[in-house]
Automatic annotation (TrEMBL), chain A:
Belongs to the binding-protein-dependent transport system permease family. Residues 95-299 form the ABC transmembrane type-1 domain. The keyword Oxidoreductase does not apply. Keywords: Cell membrane, Membrane, Transmembrane, Transmembrane helix, Transport. It is found in: Cell membrane. InterPro entries: BPD_transp_1_N, MetI-like, MetI-like_sf. It comes from Phycicoccus sonneratiae. Signal peptide: none annotated. Gene3D superfamilies: MetI-like. It holds the Pfam family BPD_transp_1_N. This is ABC transporter permease. Coiled coil: none annotated. The chain crosses the membrane at residues 12-30, 101-119, 131-153, 173-191, 277-302.
Automatic annotation (TrEMBL), chain B:
Residues 24-275 form the ABC transporter domain. It comes from Phycicoccus sonneratiae. This is ABC transporter ATP-binding protein. Belongs to the ABC transporter superfamily. Signal peptide: none annotated.
Length: 309, 345
């Protein structure tokens, strides 16, 4: 187990290098003048321009720029924004907000998704099964910005059940509830369908037949034997989804004015703040890799047939 | 609900006593599968009895209805698509088919129990084997975890699993095929059932392991005086264990006899074909006899004798009249118009 984790962590290094290089190269390749627009309406002064170019090594070739960036990264320095604020400080403000939103969304998708999946899997072809089938199809088909805006309009403005937008830099659970529901709604569809498919498959399995012939109640045979096996891929999916949600939800954060990581990256791209984009994306890559590792370890705990030795 | 109701014990558990030594009585059982393509008659009026301490082998090809019979007795058919339009399955005189589901559930394990062909897929992959055996005691006897696990160790030792105490926490995939089948057997005999149904228990195993499992089953059956129903397509497997053999073809019993009598002189051409198709060492170099053709489609069972298209002895009467299962010699039943000639041949 220990050697497995060490091997996986070592494997992350080339992935991080590759991912940051790609992002770095893409930001580098953006057309136009990187200094333009940094000084409002007026053109920047030659002194500011020279300082800016020197700070980000913009006069050096791409490999040199990247090499210097990686050396700083190895020291734990994610760089500074064009406003001279360390990127790490910016992330420290925003990561907790996104983390809270992602956790809430995952709890919602897990609760509703698994419940819907179990109920529809046990009563296949029933009214509820068709209802869930159609409503998840609708959810999957509608783009998230439509769902977000509709939820904001009807549940926020018209009915007044939820706050329409987030107004604080450290929003409360209540303020994040509607965005979390919107964010989780798409995954609810996937979780419930994955749960249903797996449960239906396992209900037909030989070991459930054995469970029934052992004289167990249907409740125990289905609810313990079949469900325990059906949950394995569902939990894995939820883990990966949590990793993706931690990367921030640009659209949802934009609609609800949430000061999270998604909005931060989005704004940084718009104002061509290369250091912020690369720094934030590097951080997200690391988060995603760590979550992946945790999910793989969890998989080994859930399924005794998987061995990490 | 009367005061004279003495058949129930204090804990309201129903007691089952064999009547005249008969444990299980299957009477004129029909099972159909209603599918999109039509109705397949998997069991077509089967009757037999199982006595205390008796080993009955049910023999037949794939699709003959032998496994469906076992599943119908156990009550684990998928219904729908399976339908039981008529028939009775009586356990100690009580009809399992009309019994309330909760009462029937309580018979599975303590009264009637079953082991399956593929022990790997029949055991739950995510629970330790000891836990799965202990579950029998926890669910049916309300035993606590550690006592139940003790019982599981005892049973694993009984079915000769080496180092049972250490392996009780291991998972099914960590055992060999033969050991897994032993675990299935341990689970099935946990609550001392009166009837054990073994559905092709050795088909998925090596020949040497097959023999070990069969002798274990035989030993346990004698030790506990269980009624054993052994379902198989392999005549070689049953010879040593079974007392009686019932041969099934296309959902019907075609022959029933004591094992020695049947091996000495089969009373049905199908049984004879099966016996002739066993490879023997003294036939080295000769072509192995096989029964030509295929078993019938259960949606279109041929009129007359279902075996007639494959039978070397078939006459016109076989294509029109269905032979009933009748006594052709003392203690021997056959469903063939020419049974007497087959025996003498």
């Amino acid at each position: 187990m220990g050697t497995y984790i060490i091997r996986r962590i070592l494997q992350m290094i080339p992935v991080i290098l590759g991912a940051t290089f790609l992002i770095f190269a893409m930001v580098f390749a953006l057309p136009g003048d990187p200094v333009a627009g940094k000084c409002g309406e007026r053109p920047c002064s030659p002194a500011y321009r020279a300082a800016y170019i020197q700070k980000y090594n913009l006069d050096k070739p791409l490999p040199v720029q990247y090499g210097k960036y990686v050396l700083n990264l190895a020291k734990g320095d994610l760089g500074t924004t064009s406003n001279n604020i360390p990127v790490a400080d910016q992330l420290k403000l925003r990561v907790p907000v996104t983390g809270k939103l992602a956790l809430m969304a995952v709890l919602i998708e897990t609760g509703i998704g698994i419940l819907a999946g179990v109920l529809t899997g046990i009563r296949r072809g029933g009214f509820l099964d068709n209802l869930v089938l159609v409503s998840t199809l609708v959810l999957i088909s509608i783009p998230i910005f439509v769902i977000g805006n509709l939820a904001q309009l009807y549940l926020g403005t018209r009915l007044g059940w939820f706050p329409v937008t987030v107004t604080s830099s450290n929003p409360s659970v209540y303020q994040l509830l509607l965005p979390a529901i919107v964010l989780g709604s798409l995954s609810v569809a996937y979780v419930s369908r994955l749960m249903r498919t797996n449960l239906v498959e396992n209900l037909r399995s030989d070991y459930v037949r054995t469970a029934i012939s052992k004289g167990l109640t249907k409740r125990r045979a289905y609810g313990l034997h079949a469900l325990r096996n059906s949950l394995i891929p569902v939990v894995t999916f939820i883990g990966f989804d949590f990793g993706a949600l931690l990367g921030g939800a640009v659209v949802t954060e934009g609609i609800f004015n949430i000061p999270g990581i998604g909005g931060y990256v989005f704004r940084a791209i718009r104002v061509r703040d290369g250091a912020s984009v690369v720094g934030a994306v590097t951080f997200l890559v690391i988060v995603y890799l760590v979550v992946n590792l945790l999910v793989d370890l969890l998989y080994g705990l859930l399924d005794p047939r998987i061995s990490h030795e | 609900m009367t005061v004279q109701d003495t058949t129930r014990t204090d804990d309201a558990r129903v007691r089952y006593e064999p009547q005249d030594g008969v444990l299980l009585e299957v009477e004129d059982l029909f099972v159909e599968f209603h599918t999109a393509d039509g109705i397949a008659t998997a069991i077509n009026g089967v009757s037999f009895e199982l006595h205390q301490g008796e080993s009955l082998a049910i023999l037949g090809e794939s699709g003959s209805g032998k496994s469906v019979t076992a599943q119908a007795i156990m009550g684990i058919l998928d219904m729908p698509p399976a339908v039981i339009p008529s028939g009775h399955i009586r356990y100690c005189g009580q009809d399992l088919l009309t019994m309330p589901e909760e009462q029937r559930r309580k018979t599975r394990g303590p009264e009637v129990s079953m082991i399956f062909q593929d022990a790997l897929s029949s055991l739950n992959p995510v629970f330790p084997v000891g836990w799965q055996i202990a579950e029998m005691f926890r669910v049916h006897r309300g035993m606590n975890k550690s006592d139940a696990l003790q019982q599981a160790v005892r049973l694993m030792e009984r079915v000769q699993i080496p180092a049972a105490r250490e392996r009780v926490k291991a998972y099914p995939h960590q055992f060999s095929g033969g050991m897994r089948q032993r675990i299935m057997i341990a689970m099935a005999i946990a609550l001392d059932p009166a009837v054990l149904i073994a559905d092709e228990p050795t088909t998925a195993l090596d020949v040497t392991v097959q023999a070990q499992i069969m002798s274990l089953l035989e030993e346990l059956q004698e030790e506990r005086q269980m009624g054993l129903i052994l379902i198989t397509h392999d005549l070689g497997v049953v010879a040593d264990v079974a007392d009686r053999i019932a041969v099934m073809y296309a959902g019907r019993l075609v022959e029933k006899a004591d094992v020695d009598a049947l091996y000495a002189s089969p009373a049905h051409p199908y049984t004879r074909g099966l016996l002739e198709s066993i490879p023997r060492l003294d036939q080295k170099g000769q072509t192995l006899a096989a029964i030509g053709g295929l078993p019938p489609n259960l949606m279109r069972i041929p009129p007359g004798c279902a075996f007639n298209p494959r039978c070397r002895m078939a006459q016109d009467v076989c294509r029109t009249d269905r032979p009933e299962l009748r006594e052709v010699a003392p203690g021997r039943l056959s469903a063939c118009h020419f049974a007497e000639e087959v025996i003498d041949a």
